[in-house]
Amino acid sequence: MRHIAIIGSGPAGYYTAEAAQKLWGDDVRIDIFDRLPVPYGLIRFGVAPDHQSIKGVSRRYEKTALTDNVRFVGNVAIGEDVTIAELQQFYDAIVLATGAPRDRELAVPGNDLGNVYGSAEFVGWYNGHPQFADLAPDLSGRTAVVIGMGNVALDVVRILSKTRDEFAGSDIVNHALDALTASPIERIVILGRRGPHQISMTPKELGELMELEQASPQVETADLPDEAEDAILEPGLRKSVAHLRSFAAIRRAIHGEKRIAIEFDFFASPVALLGDGRVEAVEVERTEVVKGRAQGTGETYRIPASLVVTCIGYRTAPIEGVPFDERMGRFANDEGRILDGLYCVGWARRGPTGTIGTNRPDGFGLVELIAADMESGKLGRQGKRGREGFDKLAADRGLDIVTFQDWKKIEEAEHSAAREGSPREKFIAIEQMIAAKGS
Ligand SMILES: Cc1cc2nc3c(=O)[nH]c(=O)nc-3n(C[C@H](O)[C@H](O)[C@H](O)COP(=O)(O)OP(=O)(O)OC[C@H]3O[C@@H](n4cnc5c(N)ncnc54)[C@H](O)[C@@H]3O)c2cc1C
User: What is the pLDDT of residues 224-237, one digit of tens each?
Assistant: First the structure.
């Protein structure tokens, strides 16, 4: 029997479990640990609440979770409640699928001012992540600056722009829904250091900005390269740039029929955040793109900002004793192998790139690597005790483990508490989740 511990119940964790199960069938036991009492990682806490069809991928993970040889072990933080060395006594292979939950820092003066948030915090707030549910961003100002030109920035901009009606059918948590829809915000500036040809925004998500009830996207025609130059772009990016071109064609809306202007500010690098205790403005340096890289021109200007959200990437959280690549912000690994018997997958392996689906080949590839290591004898002695050994340690330590059946009770309670039209009202405190599962 093979015993595998997967740390993290997001997409990478569940795809790895699915692959292991497909390969070894009844000859494997898989425990999927999560520090939270609820599964699915960023499917619950990252993917935007108004993108419910994307969240539907969790049904696939549930199928894996409900098989006999896979267990969910929630409410256990590895590296805090239990160490990697302890797990190594019980499991043949340990897979870190812990994602990249920390914001990459915007390294400019003033980044610690009030009402400046990283996207992990801000997204976590509107998605009800227990760590960020109390963030209480002040949305009473009129201008927000969102830094970064990827899909996370688009999510943040869209969520800041929607009306209460547009949130119908979403699972945005009530505290965020109330705060967002009461906000008088009327100008959202998206800053990107490079130009329209260098955005990382996908066409579908960009196109959604055109459909917003009370906001309209705006691009300066002068920022767009000659249309003929779009021909060299890969098809997805070409479509995205076509959206930018149509935004440029829309007349300016700030004094028009739509209340909120979403302004794309290209070739713009934030050099300082300004304010007295809390942010009041962003100082920006104009850039030019030379051989694909942004270079400052020395010309600066200020954008008033009562809220700043940085969407510039994420870092994995280190775990004691596990080699870490500081520069890349992820576990040091070679194709997923960290040390013999210790592996990583998903964002913890690659960094924060790709879609949910990218984690699938990652998980399947890793299981092949583990199988090869097992066959070559690299993983040492067989006959480890697996979950039986872990359960004894957990009982001795008094850990309050949340099982998948417990999660189903929590989920049922969330469904019952949903406002009309919404699939669920999430519990935002760990204690509430634990109480909902009962004893
Ligand atoms: C804001 C945002 C929106 C996104 N929207 C989309 C989208 O619309 N479509 C799309 O295709 N992709 C989207 N993505 C990308 C997608 O979410 C990721 O590709 C995917 O979630 C990465 O999976 P993962 O399993 O590596 O990490 P995660 O999903 O982050 O899962 C990691 C899990 O590990 C757990 N964990 C961490 N540390 C520990 C520990 N020490 N002990 C125990 N458990 C631990 C966490 O609680 C978490 O459950 C989005 C990402 C973000 C940030």
Answer: 999 999 999 999 99
